[in-house]
Amino acid sequence: MVNIRMATVQDLIEMQQCNLWCLPENYQMKYYFYHQLTWPQLLWVAEDFDGRIVGYVLAKMEENDDQTAPDYVPHGHITSLAVLRTHRKRGIATMLMRRAQLEMEQVMGAKYVSLHVRKSNRAAFHLYSETLAYEINDIERGYYADGEDAYDMRCTFEKHREREAAENAAAAAAVAEVTEGVGALVTA
User: Fold this and answer.
1) Which residue has the higher pLDDT, 161 or 28?
2) Where are the beta strands (DSSP E) in the chain?
3) Is the pLDDT of residue 158 over 70?
């Protein structure tokens, strides 16, 4: 069992260590610190029963757009997501992402969130596209230091809520159908 909580400054070293174990893209400590100071609501960690950081999400609000432009849309960006191999396939990455996205939307007023994922990273692509309803926005050629291309993906919060509502309605209809069938068997 893990606990998902907002990251603190004391977590940054373990977050960086998790990044070094899991990902080829690494960041200097000042980058984590900058995120922590600027968007503390968007950094989340997963800690194991013994308090060890086993995963994190490092997110931010995009700043490089002209926020005074009439067509400006506030949006967030997932900088990095990592879960130790020993703790994968437990839904930890999904929980971290959903928490960061919730804060982006409700606290920061974001309309969508973007991220980059290696074209070769099938597991991450599946998480983003199937579980979290991200869509490919573009392909960034040579995005990574080793020259690999990246999918530029986006999740629009309004569209995501509509998808969840439809899935919940379908699940409720299925439960009602099963309940009706059980009721008919009991009365028969």
Assistant:
1) 28
2) 3-6, 43-47, 53-61, 75-83, 112-118, 135-140, 150-156
3) yes
